[in-house]
Amino acid sequence: MTSNVAQKLIHAVEEADSSTKLVEAVQNLAALGLEEAVPTLIAALGYNNPGAAVAAVDGLILVGSKAVKPLLELIDNYNYGARAWAVRALAGIGDPRGFETLLDAAKNDFALSVRRAAARGLGTIRWQEMPLQQAQNSQSQALETLVEVCSDPEWVVRYAAVTGLEALSLAICETQPEKLPQITAQLLQMASDDEEIAIRARAWMALHPLQNNTELPKIRFTESQEEKEVPSRGGGRRL
What we know:
elongated; 0% strand; single chain; 2 domains; Leucine-rich Repeat Variant; 13 helices
């Protein structure tokens, strides 16, 4: 039944003969969150219809990790507009396979909306799906990039960098607590010196749990193959 519905909605997207009908058809298809809708949703990213692209991004995020591989292929093979929407979808999904793409986009993309999405996404990568050592290395890269993005000329990108740092602190407190002072220092600088009052306020909000030693949630990381092969000797570090 679900497959039949999906095929009807895919057909409706393909046959839409107006901008309004296209947006409605993509929204309906996106709401299913089905893997079989991914090719059509990805195609919608390149239709030069922002409403349809927004709906397609939402649908791809709903599908989740199963959409990541075709999204990464899209980034290499399609026009800039479609790639930009794909970056936003990867940021929303948070799959570690999109990390390098988000890292580059946050620093180098010429579109502020893409830099903003990438900066936010760098804080919400699903780190627990990486082996611990890889997660630590990637978090260090994310931290370095987010600190750099805090100097972006566009205030909305700097705002996203603050939210990215806040989210990143939740993971780093478990994996590399010695790096928390670097996050705190950057947020303090933003809270004190940024020209935009919204950013200063958001930075103070992000600082609150760090300064008050709030208990932050713990996450469990995957094991690398090498770690799996080492026999337990008891009293090991709990992640």
